[in-house]
Amino acid sequence: MADDHNLTRAEARGVRHARELETHLTWLETFSGTALGVLAVASGIYTYLGVSSLLDENGAMSVFAAIAYSVAVSVGIFVFWSYMMRLFPAVRTARARVGLLGAMGLGSLAIVAMSSWLNAAALAGSAAVEQHLAETVQDYQSALERAHEIALSGQALQRDVARTRQSFEDLSEQEAAGSLSGLAGRGAVFRVLRQKSAELAALETQITAQTPLVENAFSEGNTILSRMRALTVEPGPVEARSVEFSEAAVRLQGLITQLRQLSVAQLVERAAQDLSASVVLPELDGRTEETRADQSATITSVLDVLAARAATLEKAAQAVGALQPPGDVTYTPISSADAVILYARNFVPSWAGAIAIDLLPGVLVFILAITHGAIRQGRDGASIEDTLTLAELRAAVSAIRDVESTLQLTDPKPEAPARPETTPNPDTTVAELKGKSA
C-alpha cells in the first residue's frame, strides 16, 4: 500500500520542474555578479566622461573628483541591484513586494538622476552641442533675412517719394506755363512747388545712398552665416569650434542691428509729416488784387494736394514701420550635458542606451522573481522528504554515521547490507523512489 505522503503524478512533475529551475539558477548565479559588476563599471566610465565635460578645470583635483563620483555611481548601482536581485524574489507577501517595488522605483529614479543623464552626455554630448549651434544658425539666419526684408521695404519707399516729388515738379512746370494760377512765370506758386520738390529730392537722395549699405551688410552677414554653418560640422573638438562660433555670432548680431538702423521708414514718416506742416509761404507778387487772389487760391489748392500726398506717404512709411521686427537672437554657449537635456527629443537612442545600461538589471530582478515563484509553486504540497534528493539523503546519512561513530560503544554494530548494483540518479527525490517501489 502506498504511503499517505506519496506525491501525485502532477505534484511529482512540479517538484522535478522546481528542481530543474533551481539547477539553472545555480548555474546562472556563477556569473550574474560578474555581469552586474561589468554593467556598473561601464556606467561609471560613461559617468566619468559626462562629469569631465561639466568641470571647467582640467587639473588633478578635477580628475580626482570625476573619478570619485564615477566610482561612487558604480558602487551604488552594483549594491542597489544586488539588494534587489536577492531580496525581491525572496519575499512572498503582496505588501512586501509592493514596498520593494516602490524602493526599486525610487532607486531607479536616483540612478537616472545621478548617472543616466551624464551617460547620455558622454554618448551624444558633442552631437547635442552641434545641434545647438545649428539651431542658433537658423535663428540668426531668420533674424538676418527679416532685418533685410524690412530694410528693403524701407528702401522701396523711394518710389513713393520719387512719385510725389515728380508730381510737384510737374505742377511747378504747369505753373511756369501759366496753367495753374493763370500767370505764366516763376511766381509765388511756382516757388512753393519747387520748395517741396527739393525737400523730396533730398530725401530721395538720402534713401538712395543707403541702398549700398543695406546690400553690403546683408552680404557680409551671409558670409558670416556660411562660416557658422561650417563650424557646426567641422571635425575636431566642439569646444574650440564653439569659441569661434561665439565670435562670429557677435559680429553677425552687430550686422543685424545695423540693418535695423538702416531702415528709412521712420525717416520717411517724419519727412511726410513735415511736408505739409512746414511750408514757407512766399509773398504774393501779383500786380493787381485779382491776381493776388488767384495766386492765394492756387496756393491753397497746392497745400491741399500737398497734405493729401503727405498723408499717403506717411501711411506707406507707417506700414513699413509696423512690420514685425526680427527677434532678438543671442548665442549662449552650453555644456554637452545641458545640450543633451535641451535637445533630448533629438537624441532618443542615446538616452535609451544611457538609461538601459543602468536599469537593465531591473529586468533580471523580475526574471528571478518569476522563476522563484515558479519554484515555490512546484514545491507546494510537498513535504521535505518528498523533495529530498538521493544526493542530499546520502549526505545526511553520512553525517549521521559520523555522529554515530563518535558515540559508538565498544560493541560494533553489524555491517549494513550491500547496496544494489544499480545507482539511481542523485537528483531523484526520495518520494519518487518510494513511488517506484510501491
Description of the molecule:
By secondary structure, the chain is mostly helical. It folds into three domains: 157 residues, no CATH class; 208 residues, Ferritin (Up-down Bundle), CATH 1.20.1260; 52 residues, no CATH class. Helices cover 78% and strands 0% of the residues. It contains 13 helices and no strands. The protein is rod-shaped and about 165 Å long. The N and C termini lie close together (7 Å). 30% of the residues are buried.
Nutshell version of this structure?
With 438 residues, the protein is mostly helical. 78% of the residues lie in helices and 0% in strands. The longest helix has 62 residues, at 94-155.
Q: Count structural domains.
A: 3
The structural class is mainly alpha
Characterize the overall form.
rod-shaped
Proportion of residues in helical segments: over 70%
Which segments are poorly predicted (pLDDT under 50) over 5 or more consecutive residues? Answer: 1-5
Quantity of strands, as a count? 0
* Terminal Cα span: 7 Å
Report strand %: under 5%
Major sheet summary line: none
CATH class of the largest domain: Mainly Alpha
Q: Could you state the order of secondary-structure elements as H and E?
A: HHHHHHHHHHHHH
Mean pLDDT: 78
- Radius of gyration, in Å, reads 47 Å
Key features of this structure:
438 residues, mainly alpha, Ferritin, 3 domains, 13 helices, 78% helix, disordered N terminus
How does the SSE layout of this entry go?
Blueprint: H1 9-54, H2 60-87, H3 94-155, H4 157-176, H5 188-233, H6 238-261, H7 265-277, H8 289-321, H9 336-342, H10 348-379, H11 384-387, H12 390-407, H13 430-437
Helix pairs in contact: 1-2, 1-3, 1-10, 2-3, 2-10, 3-5, 3-6, 3-9, 3-10, 4-5, 4-8, 5-6, 5-8, 7-8
Region (Disordered): 406-438
Keywords: Membrane, Transmembrane, Transmembrane helix
Transmembrane segments: 26-49, 61-84, 96-118, 351-370
